[in-house]
Design a protein that fits this description.
Length: about 240
């Protein structure tokens, strides 16, 4: 499938007040991301990875500059328009699973589709497909408390992917998983990236994730210090 630019940041700056001064979390970020990328923002804690992910995800606004996501300048969107962008085109995966404990696996994965106003028949078809993608077709009626950590993260991946988003934003998605589960999740994400041509953008300092990336963008003190293409080295264990 032909690639096209889905995300573009221009002279992006993010400042936060700190006492009587300001802390610059992002400083003049100029990046673009095409459809189908499997890319990571890497760097130590406090380097600006999550801040950039939040701005791309229309969860926060820049102090200066622009983030254009699927043709929309996120700083120009109101609350309703930002929510619409997220609901229709973005999938989110976090280090904490953020599953709703009172709902079963099916209902947790179904939730994003309810926001899109899909019919019950279409929702069921898409949820079951997403659970098949992540190998949890037999856990439809289980609640999060009945699942392992790895299974909970697979449910979170299914929830992010069920609407076949153009962009998936993953913030330290393997942080709470052991190595075996981390590699299983990453292998699954690679397969979904290839099948759906969704752009995956990670914020991570996990070497296991970095091995899988095809592009690595290193941030230090809110600045891009390196942006390189690489050959992925998936786990062979």
């Amino acid at each position: 499938m032909k690639n096209n630019v889905l995300i573009k940041t221009e002279n992006l700056v993010k400042n936060y007040p700190m006492g009587g001064r300001k802390f610059t979390a992002l400083n003049d970020i100029n990046l673009s991301f095409n459809s189908g990328e499997f890319t990571g923002l890497v760097g130590p804690s406090g380097s600006g990875k999550t801040t950039l992910l939040n701005i791309v995800g229309a969860l926060d606004n820049p102090s200066e500059g622009h983030a254009v996501v699927i043709g929309k300048d996120t700083s120009q969107l109101n609350h309703r328009e930002s929510a619409q962008l997220r609901n229709e085109h973005l999938g989110f995966i976090f280090q904490t699973f953020n599953l709703l404990s009172v709902y079963n696996v099916f209902e947790n994965v179904e939730f994003p589709l309810l926001l899109l106003g899909m019919s019950a028949e279409d929702r069921k078809k898409d949820v079951l497909q997403a659970l098949e993608w992540v190998g949890l077709s037999d856990k439809v009626k289980s609640r999060p408390a009945q699942l392992s950590g790895g299974e909970c993260q697979r449910v979170a991946v299914a929830r992010a992917m069920v609407k076949k988003p153009k962009i998936v934003l993953a913030d330290e998605p393997t942080a709470n998983l052991d190595a075996a589960n981390s590699y299983n999740i990453l292998d699954m994400m690679v397969s979904l990236n290839k099948e759906l041509n969704s752009t995956f953008l990670f914020a991570t300092h996990d070497e296991k994730v970095i091995k899988y990336l095809r592009r690595v963008i290193t941030l230090t003190d809110g600045k891009v210090v390196q942006d390189i293409e690489k050959t992925p080295e998936p786990n062979n264990a």
